């Protein structure tokens, strides 16, 4: 009897150990032609067409007239398709790889060549249009024997569809041909605000890396570039009205973003369907503003004498200055939203300052939370007068500041489910970042925790849920610069992108998700994005 138990125990033990022994080869082989983020509806079929880049073309039709925006987009994809192929062939040549087993397409799954793809915009096109918070982004794709077509009622939907079409193309196992499967896709985003925050103050991020980031965002259907452009450490934004801010506040005079460069970023983003929302965080996080304009900051007194604290809310001229600055910012950045910050205000310097004490007494402001509220209230009012809508970090709401109803509250702290509940119960719109801090590193596979973060968890009330309009992955740049910013963000932010695009995804087979991300990462690599490997051992041919 004992012997039997021993035998069973030994067997179980061996079985368990075997379960953990690595097999040779990649841990999660990439999928073939899977779209990331996953479309809401896709009917798949393993039958495929062959796409020969030299024969293939897009055929664009619009409701009326020209559409330069889409013509240019099509041109980009027309170059990308052969590029992905050529880059792999070049690698094979480097290794003197010859394909011995050419696959002849006589199998039943082969449906013929795909030589064209119809792109139909069923509305008129305004080439100068900017994407907004209410832009429609849905599209449909059919690839079948009879029909090969993408359609949408908006240019932004067409852009998303072109990306999905491109992602559906994959290399055959022999690396000799490009394939695309027969399929039907009907797709639209779950949330309208799908963002990436990039901090360009803690480390300066050069223009080319910003553009590359925006490129990668479009590959993940993210649509808001939240540009955390200035902070305590440096002020790289070149203001036309106050050029001294960056002349003195940038790390060095040339680590700045000039008006012309900012226009390049905005236009690069626009034609990819991405909004650019700048953040000018006040009253805290403003130390670099004070290099040129110490008078707008609070001069600390007592033990802290010689140091500067947050913006001085007691000084009326400060609001005139901000009015001028934000008036300019609104002209420069086309979007109708500005992010006003309002996070992490430290009170000790305010507490030390005797003028502020007098001011509070005079205005019957009881404590420093109330003083902060007084300040933010005034800033929000002046921005409101500029017809500029605002996003604020959650502290502004938590401190009970009265903000206009369309203000978006940006939730970033740990107790986010409670905060989201409170914000939405108070009828404000919210965006979430708490679970998508890219600067918090776990191990290589930490994108999975990003993926598991389900924003709707805060409530089962659909009205409250509808007030949550999206989220942002945040790349604070204390420990990233031009050398590692791209690989730190990607493909980790891809997990956030899918969470924000695709409706409830909890029933998914997680191994398939891993394999899809493996393919998506290789695809980004082929497009020049140095995304890091997501799943441990494996390889990409790039
Ligand atoms: C896939 O497409 C082929 C070719 O049109 C068709 O014969 C087959 O029935 C389809 N399979 C499924 C599961 O729909
Ligand atoms: C495409 O078809 C192949 C088989 O021909 C299959 O392995 C692959 O998973 C399919 N991909 C998609 C996205 O349907
Ligand atoms: C490939 O072939 C060329 C020419 O025969 C040779 O010079 C080169 O070293 C080879 N490369 C590799 C990686 O074997
Ligand atoms: C695309 O066209 C089909 C057929 O006309 C239509 O049913 C579908 O709603 C259209 N899709 C979009 C996103 O406009
Ligand atoms: C909800 O937020 C308000 C401020 O807007 C605050 O006074 C209140 O304590 C919060 N409630 C909870 C339960 O956190
Ligand atoms: C939502 O409903 C589910 C299922 O009834 C429950 O487990 C969960 O606790 C609810 N969530 C909230 C925030 O009330």
Automatic annotation (TrEMBL):
Swiss-Prot/TrEMBL GO biological process terms: carbohydrate metabolic process; ganglioside catabolic process; glycosaminoglycan metabolic process
Residue ranges of every copy of the Beta-hexosaminidase eukaryotic type N-terminal domain listed in the record: 35-167
GO cellular component: lysosome; membrane
Record-linked Pfam families: Glyco_hydro_20 (PF00728), Glycohydro_20b2 (PF14845)
Catalytic activity, EC: 3.2.1.52
Disulfide links within the chain: 67-125, 300-349, 522-540
UniProt protein name: Beta-hexosaminidase
